[in-house]
Amino acid sequence: MTACLFCSIAAGEVSASFVHQDELVIAFRDINPQAPTHILVVPREHIVSAAELSAVQDPVWARLLHVSQQLAAAEGIVESGYRIVTNVGRDAGQSVSHLHLHLLGGRAMSWPPG
Ligand code: 5GP
Ligand code: ZN
């Protein structure tokens, strides 16, 4: 068992409700959804946050966005709209130190975020 929750999910050691898996990226439903659609899109590689990304990981970042786009279509939230969020560090409230995009949709959201 690895120490990182999302590495453990990627390795199949912790169960999750997967909606996508490929060689670079996995996606699964958030255990505590904040909207009707709340999916976490996660690189298989352990990257702490968006602050740790380097140019060699550009393909990973691009895949995260494209998978989010495809999942939004699959969830039927393209027309109504959706939000893609990644929290970085303490002030943003990042609670899992493995990069992930939140794909949120299915309800109207306010701005600015809390
Ligand atoms: P963060 O706070 O780091 O931006 O987001 C972490 C997210 O991971 C939270 O929305 C939280 O609900 C979700 N989460 C935490 N533990 C688990 C888990 O074991 N399974 C799943 N599917 N989501 C989790
Ligand atoms: Zn990890």
TrEMBL record:
<dbReference type="GO" id="GO:0003824">
    <property type="term" value="F:catalytic activity"/>
</dbReference>
<feature type="domain" description="HIT">
    <location>
        <begin position="5"/>
        <end position="114"/>
    </location>
</feature>
<protein>
    <submittedName>
        <fullName>Histidine triad nucleotide-binding protein</fullName>
    </submittedName>
</protein>
<dbReference type="InterPro" id="IPR019808">
    <property type="entry name" value="Histidine_triad_CS"/>
</dbReference>
<dbReference type="Pfam" id="PF01230">
    <property type="entry name" value="HIT"/>
</dbReference>
<dbReference type="InterPro" id="IPR011146">
    <property type="entry name" value="HIT-like"/>
</dbReference>
<dbReference type="InterPro" id="IPR001310">
    <property type="entry name" value="Histidine_triad_HIT"/>
</dbReference>
<dbReference type="InterPro" id="IPR036265">
    <property type="entry name" value="HIT-like_sf"/>
</dbReference>
<feature type="short sequence motif" description="Histidine triad motif">
    <location>
        <begin position="98"/>
        <end position="102"/>
    </location>
</feature>
<feature type="active site" description="Tele-AMP-histidine intermediate">
    <location>
        <position position="100"/>
    </location>
</feature>
